[in-house]
Amino acid sequence: MAGRPRVGILSLQGDVREHGRVLSELGAEVLLVRRPAELAGVDGLVIPGGESTTIDKLARAFGMQEPIRRVIAGGMPVFGTCAGLILLADRLEDGIAGQQTFGGLDVTVKRNAFGGQVESFETEIAVGGFAGPPVHATFIRAPAVTEVGPGARALAALDDGRVVAVEQGVLLGIAFHPEVSGELRFHRRFLDHVAARA
User: Fold this and answer.
1) Is the pLDDT of residue 2 over 80?
2) Whose CA is closest to 176, among 48, 40, 41?
3) What is the set of active-site residues?
């Protein structure tokens, strides 16, 4: 990978623009990914927050589900936030009928674990391996990890023990929205994975 990392954002639904702004600020070349051919041209992929059920349906409709599963299995770095965490989970709790995931993270994730939109909240959390102050985390109809399998490791949990950030090799999944709060450390970690795979 010469020069700037080429990072794709799955652009079927969700907060695509916010991730694009952060990644551009950090020096990445950002491409919007909606088709398999566009996926083939990137070094890493972001799956943004949004509606996991809608992203799942659109990914299948656009022929993206299997290509995304293949690049995950092939070792492409992928960063999922909120709905993206749900879509990276191998196992889903409280999904709607027929809902599917891309998989890759050896975790079980529960949708809307904190309730609806009115239960959205912000808090400070410590993240394993992150220097500096705690992360300011914005949770919006957020999921939570209810089981971490032996393949993955928890990076952060709330005071009540609910896991909200996990990592497995070059896969990174978090339940909150760093692109909203201006927190850059997760995007930097993702870009480090991209650079290391080059």
Assistant:
1) no
2) 48
3) 82, 177, 179
